[in-house]
Amino acid sequence: MDAVTEKKNVIEGKFLTFALSNEEYGIEILRVREIIGLMDITTVPQTPDYMKGVINLRGKVIPVIDLRLKFSMQEEIHTQETCVIVVEVNNTSIGIIVDSVSEVLDIKSGDIEETPSFGQGIDTNFIMGLGKVKEQIIILLDIESVLSSDELEMVEQLVKE
Amino acid sequence: MTIGKKFIVMFSVFFVAVIAGAFFVFNSTRQQNAEKNTIDLAGRQRMLTQKYFKEYINDMIPLQVRYSTVKSAEIATLQIVEDRKQFTKNVIIKLKKDGIVDVHPNRAYADIDGGIPLPATFVQEVSKNINEKGVYSYDLLSKWNINKEKGLKTDFEKEAFTYLFNKEGKVFSRFMVHNNIYSLRYATADVAAAAGCVSCHNNHEDSPKKDFKLGDVMGVLVVNIPIGTVSAETVAFFAKTNDDNFGKDSFLKTKKVFDTTLAALMNGGDAPLDLGMTKFKTISGLTDPIAKNKLNEVQGLWNSTQDALETLTKTTPNSAEYIVAYNNAYKSNNATMKAMNEAVGIVVTEANRQGTILLYIQAGSVGLVCLVIGLGWVFFARPLINLLKNLVEKLTEGANQVASASGQISSSSQNLAEGSSEQASSLEETSASMEEMSSMTKQNADNSKEAATIAAQCNENAETSNKSVNEMNIAMHDINESSKKIGNIIKVIDGIAFQTNLLALNAAVEAARAGEHGKGFAVVAEEVRNLAQRSATAAKDTTELIEDCVSKAEVGTKLSEECKTSLTGIVANIKKVTSLTDEISIASTEQSEGINQVTTALQQMDQVTQQNAANAEETASASEEMSAQSETLKDQIKVLSEQVGGQVHESSDTYEKSHFRNNQIEQRHAKNISTGTNGNGKKSVRHHNLVDAGELIPMGENSVVEHDDRMSDF
Hints:
heterodimer; A: mainly beta; 3 helices; 44% strand; disordered N terminus; B: alpha+beta; 11 helices; 75% helix; rod-shaped
């Protein structure tokens, strides 16, 4: 279980899969801190659209990003299944709003394919690979690249405030 | 001034002129008639003088003839008597006295020797010879005739003998028919003049009477002078020969007429109009002194003519004095006639003079009347004629328009009549249709009532259904509520499952973090997650079922809602239907009433239409009449225009008189004026009379015809 070699290569392990706009995405389980249901979001002014605001999670203030808007998808109305996945990036907890959380999957490297280049509104750097589970393709996201450093700074600032 | 007043003025002037003229005319005619009468009478006097003379002379002819005949008879008688006397005295008596010869005076002397005829025989024999010659004849007849043939045979002979025997006169004569000849029978007495006669006769053996004395009438000597053949004229001619009646039937009458007329002419009085003096005319005597003098002259000459004629009568006919007297009478008569002529001439001249004056007066009055007529024409008749012409024009136009309008009216009213008839028939049909409609409406009403009833029932049913549906709805609603509640619960469960899932995931995350130690936890978490999944699935299924149920319930609710809606709709519709059927019912009733009204109206309309048709027919006939009347009017107007001599403008539509016709009319008009028949006809004729009267000369003669001295025309 080498999780270090290449980003593109060995990424087997457990992934938390979630749905976003009818597409399954996956995040490494280690990155995931917590999964919570949707709760009230306190909006913060002068923030980009995808920065929804902050939530209070057991005393802890966590900024929340709408992944849809981040991926330049159309914003959907939050349902009962909408969850917030608290991920940890650079020791910072950020919540991302997803449509629904599916399961934890154990994906073998054999089921992971390389990312083809296509224009789907997703920068392929974000994508670690494509997993195949039961005829279904799961886009394995590199959460770090998803959230850029600028944003992380912003996030940190937010946290500090 | 109105036409009437103009008429009055015209006619008064005209009337006055006519009356004045008539007065003149009448007066002058009367005058001239009187003068004419006078002239006639005066002229007649001329004729009368001639007539008188002629008649006198005519009447004297028989006298002359008688005289001559009597004279001849006298001569013959004398001759015969003397002859016999001589024979008796100088022959018989002397011979016997002388005694020379034994003479035997005997009737049949021829047979006797020495026989000599008796005096009577002598006379008889001579008479026989004479008679045979036929110039004249005589017979010696007696009552006591010795000669058997010489008796008194005829009435005349007997009468004459009686007359002469009784010595009533010397001569008994008569003009009569004797032996078929008109003759004078002149009988004288045969007196015994000589003793020898007496003695002879007394002694004669054949003598029936033998006591003759000297101076006795022994017989009669009848001399027969033939005058002429027997005819009515000769008989009539000698019938007039009666001295007492001389001229009574002829010239005396004429004289009387002449005298009366002359007296009337001179002094005025009744003048006889006819020669029979049965009709008289009173005339006034001539006033002109010259004429009067002339008439006096005439009177004198007339008297002298009569004297001369009387002298002539008294003069012995066929003597020199006779001829002289005749000439005197003739000359006197002629003078009378001439004087009379002159008198007539004087009167005629005077009459002519007066006639000329009157002629001038009449000419003046004619002129006046003509002037009046002219003025009348100019001021009255012509404007009137113009007016009438205009009137006729306008009337013609009007009549034409009336004619055309009446034609139009006629046609349109005929159309109207037809239309009305059609309308009437249509109305009949409509009426029938209305009847059907009425019955249909009634049916409708009944049906609608039924429908209303059924609708009411339906309504009730719908209400019931509605209630049921409502209940069902409530039940459904309850079901729904329950389902929702179940759903909520399931949601809770689902939420729990979800949270459990999350927790399981979190647990898996933590377990992953934990690494090796967490594997068992990871399995547990996995199991929990599976359970959560199962729970979620169950919840989902249940949710689905519930949802299904809910949806079904919702569907059911919807359906019941729909049902309700439908029922409500049905109810509403039923209500609508009910109201509609009510309305229909009402409407049907109203419709029925309406139809009744319409029917009534149709009947009225029918009546009215029939009336219209009749009226239209009447109008058509009236307009036909009007058309005919307007034609008559046009004809009358034509007649009037002809009378007026109208030259109606040729722009007029129907007045198509040609110029020729107009000329005819004008000519006729002109003729009317010239002949004066414009009410002046009387005048002109009278003028004629007047003019003629002035020139009337009685007898149609202007000259005196002098009879020539030979009086050959008598």
